Amino acid sequence: MKIATIIAGAVIFLLLAIPLAVQVITAFRGPFLPFGVSSAKWSAENFVTLWELREDFWAVIGSTAAFVGGSTVLSLAMAFGLAWVTVRTDAPLRRVISVLVVVPFIIPPIVKAQAYLLMLSPESGVLNQLLRLLPGDLVIDPYSFVTMTFIQALTNVTFPFLMIVPILTSMDGSLEESARVSGASWPQTLRRVTLPMLWPGLLGVAVLTFILGLGSLEVPLLFGQESGQSIFALKLWNLISAGAGELPQYGLAAAWGCVFLVITTIAFVVYLRATRNAERRASISGKGFRPTVMKLGGWRIPVMILIFVFVLLTAILPLFALFWSAITPYPIAFSFTALVEQTQFGSFGAVLGDPEFWASLGRTLIIAGASATIACVAATVLAYGIARTRRTGWTKAMDLFASSSVAIPAVIAGFAMFLTFMVINPVIPLAGTIAALVIAYSYRVSIAYRAGYSATLQIRMELEEAALVSGASPLEGFRRIVAPLLMPTVFAVWIQMFVLGTNEFTLPAFLATPESRPLSVYMYAMISPRSAQLYAPDQGAAMALIFTLLVFAIGYGLQWAVSLGAIGRAKRRTPLLGVSSTPVVPPVVPGAPDTRAVAAQDLRDQRELTAKR
Amino acid sequence: MTHASGGGRLVVDGLEKQYLLDGAEIPVVKGVTFTIEPGTFTSLLGPSGCGKTTTLRCVAGLENSNGGVISLDGKVLSTGSRHVPPDKRDVGMVFQNYAIWPHMTVFANAVFPLQVSEGKLPKKEAKKRAMEALELVQLDGFAHRPATALSGGQQQRLALARALAHRPRLLLLDEPLSNLDAKLRDTMRNELRSLQQRLGITALYVTHDQSEALSMSDRVAVMNQGRIVQEAAPRDLYYQPADRFVADFVGRVNMIPAVVRDRDGDGDAVVEAFGTRLITPCPSGVAKGTDVTVTFRPESVRWHEAEPDRPNVVPARVVRVEFLGEIVEYEAEILNGQSVVGSIVGRGAPLNSPATGDAIFIELTPKACRVLAA
Q1: What is the average pLDDT score of chain B?
Q2: Using the beta-carbon criterion (under 8 Å), do B103 and A570 form an inter-chain contact?
Q3: Does residue B227 lie within any of the structural domains?
Q4: Rg of the Cα trace of chain A?
Q5: pLDDT tens digits, A101-114
Q6: Are residues B227 and B112 in the same domain?
């Protein structure tokens, strides 16, 4: 057991530490690659350059802060509102709303960005067409900074929503009830009791949303040509994908990476503090999971209208725009004449007949499946080992380290991995291969690690001790008791990471070559005017739709298969009673399941464990 | 299903255990010594944190002791430095939260000890033995249910069946009844005791509930702060507590400070308490003039409306009467301000009890009193 834990720990350490180390070294070794180039030497040259280009430096900081900060605040506000309506009010169709909000998570972010772009196109975009029907000369410019920030917020809103819902659900309603009984009105209760109790958790969600926003390249890449050049993700991308005749500035890019890694590290510390505070505030109770429900009354209609607008903007119009683009040969505005005269469905057939589509789809599945497996196995073994070991400095450090990948924005991870494979290529030629992508995707181990950790803590020590006392060796105990009990969690996380992997765009954007590119990157090539010979926006849109449908089918299909298996097992065990106590497989949840509830539970269990030992 | 007779003599000698907490060593068990004779039932009784569960877990091998020797039928299980792992100790254990494996059926839980390396049996034999164990606890009809479909009491019985299935030499029970409701607890108490006697298995039982310990055990060892303070048969423990802690922890007790004024040869003494003189038995070696504590149980306090012509009677005023069902408890204030709790047991209790405000006489018969060192 111990050896397995050490191996798993080493895998995770290498996965995260080496790329970051290579990035830091690159930043201090001159303008090009850190090794093998004769001019490479230790120097602070890159940081000096950063400082010499002060104006540029501050532009990037300011622009990134406005873009990521603004979109974080916006998506948090929207997520909180939606979560509040679905969990804490008597709004009609609450279940439908919560499904509608979650569904876009399964849509690959690059597809979402593309759909928004089509929806907002000044001439042919369906939203701008609708706006033209309204009085006043209102046209949304898709390339303005404000639009871009909004789009980023809409793209990411599902992530904070899924994290806020459990926080609101697990809040002990009796605390609010006692405020109400003490004579406080609803707004007073919200201000004096609810929000102070929730804010550490919300702060944690805000930090994770911020890091997610900082790391994603999709929206800046598609919308940022005019006003987004100084946004960090795009800046980093531009620095290394230099045009003809220019040399890529790896050193400078690495220096940028270091600057932003410091920023996210600070944010991560804030996150850890926030979740620790949450424990002290103890707003989560094991009993009485009964959040009080607010009666909307006269607010019913306005709330429903707002939600309808949200669904219109995030699902209906973008999907319509995508579909319209797929059936029209070139961008034209929607009209009945166009519908009758211009539409053709050839693009779907073209996509399905394109061997490169199938090849990149195959690669996507291989990369997502392999990386999810690596991450889940290593993370679960390590999480079990750490959760079952007495807390020492070492285990604490390893625990923090294994949880830290949430603090690494995807662009930095992608760039650092890219550098690493370049550096080791003379010895281990992996650059541009599928294997490189598998390794890079596995960097999201923290998701699996946190889930495995809290799942282990939920398996009471007694269950294992009972096996020992019954005469089972420790290995038998693990195989027959622990492993079967961990399996449902591991499967759920695997599915989640698999879906994340199929949707991944930022990492392969840095790492993939035409020989190893997954579907998301191939699709981008179709819709990007820069890739001259591949450019075919109608096929790109058709591919995006097929891609989305596939991810849906795979994600929900796997989940369905797993739950079917679970029910099947339960039925076999229960020949007489129809009631099954099999836990329902949790829904596909994005990002870290690092919600406050989990963190707080971890802490509590950990304390119990230390006290017991 | 029977157990090999003559097996199961547990000797624990000078057991020591420290925990590391934030770098500091905290002693939890400090030199615990006791012996359990084969086929008997011994309880470790004490408040939470007294080290009783740790002692049990050291016997099971789930904790490694830091000193002392544990042996079972002469086979050394544990010294301060060498430890036989739990799966090689031939013990069965019932855990506080039952530790029923939720992903298995009732039968799979019970047959587990007969499938794994130590107790491995041929399939048919294992099945037969597991079913026997389930029959013992009347769960044979539930064998193929999922274990989680059982009620609390049934899970408890399954845990017992699992612990007995491989016919261990020693049965360990860690507060097994504490999660059951009061009524079920009483039933399970009787079942457990009669099963243990029928099988003749040696049992070590940990509890903080004195009525469990007193009603089930052949011997009770009371623990406090990592040490055994008294080990005795239940009756002796109740009526002859060794010190104030045991007197207070086992049952309700009045403790009155007193001074020895006189003593005669055959073990009786006259002590001054409540500003009056009481005759009480007194251990030899307590000299005249010593400060002591006089203890007596509430149920041995008698009350009278008129003053009887007997020794050990004090006037008092009733300040509180509490009806507890089959027991009525009252508190009477002696004239010097100290108070005595008395109780009346039985069906007629409410009729025979005083009323608040009554002036009464309290009688403490000499044989109901006991003198402890102050």
Answers
A1: 88
A2: no
A3: yes
A4: 25
A5: 777 777 888 888 88
A6: yes
Q: Which two tokens stand for residue A346?
A: 């050839």
Average of pLDDT values for A299-327? 87
CB B337 within 8 A of CB B350: no
A610 and chain B in contact, CB less than 8 A: yes
Tell me if B146 and A573 make a contact (CB, 8 A cut-off).
Answer: yes
Q: pLDDT (tens digit, 9 = 90+) per residue, B227-278?
A: 999 999 999 999 888 888 999 898 889 999 899 888 876 778 888 888 888 8
User: What is the rounded distance in angstroms from the CA atom of residue A62 to the CA atom of residue A401?
Assistant: 30
- B contacts of A390 (beta carbons < 8 Å): 20
Which CATH number is A2-612 given? 1.10.3720.10
Say how far apart CA A138 and CA A141 lie, in whole Å.
10
Which residue type, as a one-letter code, is found at position B365? T
pLDDT of B207 > 60? The answer is yes
In this prediction, residue A532 carries a pLDDT of 64
Coil vs helix vs strand at B259: strand
pLDDT at A584 over 50: no
DSSP helix/strand/coil, A134: coil
Model confidence over B284-342: pLDDT tens digits? 778 888 899 999 999 889 999 888 888 889 999 999 999 888 888 999 998 778 888 98
Whether residue B319 is found in the same domain as residue B339:
yes
Q: How far apart are CA A489 and CA A111, in angstroms?
A: 29
Please tell me the distance from the alpha carbon of residue B38 to that of residue B46, in angstroms, as a whole number.
23
To which residue do tokens 């609810």 refer? A194
pLDDT exceeds cutoff 60 at A44: yes
β-sheet with B227-232: strand ranges across = B91-94, B170-174, B202-207, B41-45, B219-224, B227-232
Contact A472 B166 (CB under 8 A): no
Lowest mean pLDDT among A135-149, A161-175, A538-552: A161-175
Q: Averaged over A336-353, what is the pLDDT?
A: 81
Sign of CA pseudo-dihedral A229, A230, A232, A235 = positive
Assess whether B212 and B291 both reside in one domain: no
CA atoms within 13 A on the CB side of A587: 13
Q: Burial-class residue A433 by CB neighbours within 10 Å (0-12, 13-18, 19+).
A: middle
Task: Encode pLDDT of A256-292 as tens digits.
Answer: 889 899 999 998 888 888 776 554 444 444 444 456 6
- For residue A466, the chain B residues in CB contact (below 8 A) are 93, 95, 99, 101, 159, 162
Looking at the structure of chain B, the number of domains it has is 2
Residues B241 and B260 in one domain: no
Answer whether residue B1 is part of any domain: no
Mean pLDDT calculated for residue range B78-83: 90
Q: What angle do CA A442, A444, A216 make, to 5 degrees?
A: 110
- In angstroms, rounded to a whole number, what is the distance separating the alpha carbons of residues B36 and A519? 71
Inter-chain touch A466–B95, beta carbons under 8 Å = yes
Instruction: Name the 3-class secondary structure at A33.
Output: coil
Segments forming the whole domain that contains residue B29 = 10-248
Q: Which of B306, B319, B301 is nearest to B362 (CA)?
A: B301
- Other C-beta atoms lying within 10 Å of the C-beta of residue B162: 32
Q: Do B101 and A466 touch (CB under 8 A)?
A: yes
Taking CB atoms and an 8 Å limit, are B117 and A471 in contact across chains? yes
Mutation for A interface: B17, B62, B77, B129, most A CBs within 10 A: B62
Residue A246 has pLDDT above 70, yes or no: no
**Rounded CA separation B10/B40 (Å):** 10
User: Residue A602's pLDDT is what?
Assistant: 42
What is the model's pLDDT at position A290?
Answer: 55
- Boundary-marking domain end, from B248, B274, B309: B248
Q: Which candidate in A392, A459, A461, A470 is best for mutational testing of the B interface (most B CBs within 10 A)?
A: A470
Residue A473 touches chain B, beta carbons under 8 Å: yes
Interface check A613 vs B, CB under 8 A: yes
